[in-house]
């Protein structure tokens, strides 16, 4: 019976990341209870064996949350909070405000439950392939209660301290990741301007000291103009604003990130926000001289 309960997992949010997580849970035989603000997004999973839940916190001892922002987490979890039971674990994979993570841990602790902030570093496609990195903050015993889930969520898992520390680390990771992606886009734009073959240029970059994993995941998309979303440009802009907010609260200026924010805002104005974040190359090519 205990093992049966452990195999019941809730998922709140079926966006790009929540979809990848749900697919991996189903593939590994977990009884997956899903909830999304628009129910029709759950239909394909229900056809594959998932169960619709009006409140996963009623049905499952462990619930994974994957939503757009801290504001959406607040709105959704507030509606479910009365169902929280002692010993439950909420794993929030949302990239959000660290202070909001700390508040949610405090609320659930008052109900003798656990909240782990566990943002995922990697695209939905990397998560689907089991190649992402999971950064976890919160109670160590709750982290260990989920030891069967971490290999499903990612290849590398780091417990980095108390609740809020993972959300902070994710902002650091996303800062470097985003700037690597923007640098790659600008480098490919320069290669095109200099009339170099882009496929060859990418190959040289991948074999050089300039290498970053963004070349593997986004280089081909940039060259081919394939901006089908693995992670949306607007979502990264949301994260960049969180980085600047966190640094500003400590009196620190992030000069490169400020420039990156302006570039992403320009991309949004061009209507690229719902495309993959590799579409930043299109914004760079249209910047006024």
Description:
The protein is of the alpha/beta class and 289 residues long. The protein folds into 2 domains: 2-162, NAD(P)-binding Rossmann-like Domain (Rossmann fold), CATH 3.40.50.720; 168-285, N-(1-d-carboxylethyl)-l-norvaline Dehydrogenase, domain 2 (Orthogonal Bundle). The protein is built from 15 helices and 9 strands. Strands 3-2-1-4-5-6 form a 6-stranded parallel β-sheet. Strand 2 (31-35), helix 3 (43-47) and strand 3 form a beta-alpha-beta unit. It is globular. The mean pLDDT is 95.
Task: Produce a short descriptive summary.
By secondary structure, the chain is an alpha/beta fold. It has 15 helices and nine strands. Strand 5, helix 6 and strand 6 form a beta-alpha-beta unit.
């Amino acid at each position: 019976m205990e093992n049966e309960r452990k195999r019941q997992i809730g998922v709140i949010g079926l966006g790009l990341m929540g979809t990848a997580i749900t697919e991996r849970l189903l593939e590994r035989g977990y009884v997956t209870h899903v909830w999304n603000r628009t129910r029709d997004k759950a239909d394909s999973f229900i056809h594959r064996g998932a169960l619709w839940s009006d409140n996963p916190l009623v049905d499952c001892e462990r619930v994974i949350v994957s939503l757009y922002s801290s504001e959406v987490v607040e709105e959704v979890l507030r509606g479910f909070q009365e169902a929280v039971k002692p010993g439950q674990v909420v794993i929030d994979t949302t990239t959000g405000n660290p202070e909001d993570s700390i508040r949610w841990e405090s609320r659930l602790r008052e109900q003798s439950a656990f909240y782990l902030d566990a943002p995922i570093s990697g695209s939905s496609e990397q998560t689907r392939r089991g190649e992402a990195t999971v950064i976890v903050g919160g109670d160590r015993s709750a982290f260990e209660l989920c030891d069967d889930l971490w290999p499903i969520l990612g290849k590398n898992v780091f417990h980095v301290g108390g609740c809020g520390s993972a959300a902070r680390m994710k902002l650091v990771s996303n800062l470097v990741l985003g700037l690597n992606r923007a640098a790659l886009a600008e480098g490919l734009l320069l290669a095109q301007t200099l009339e170099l073959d882009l496929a060859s240029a990418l190959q040289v970059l991948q074999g050089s000291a300039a290498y970053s994993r963004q070349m593997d995941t986004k280089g081909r998309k940039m060259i081919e103009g394939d901006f089908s979303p693995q992670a949306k440009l607007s979502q990264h802009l949301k994260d960049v604003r969180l980085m600047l907010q966190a640094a500003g609260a400590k009196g620190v200026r992030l000069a490169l990130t400020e420039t990156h924010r302006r570039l992403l805002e320009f991309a949004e104005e061009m209507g690229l926000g719902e495309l993959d974040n590799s579409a930043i190359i299109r914004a760079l090519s249209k910047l006024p001289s």
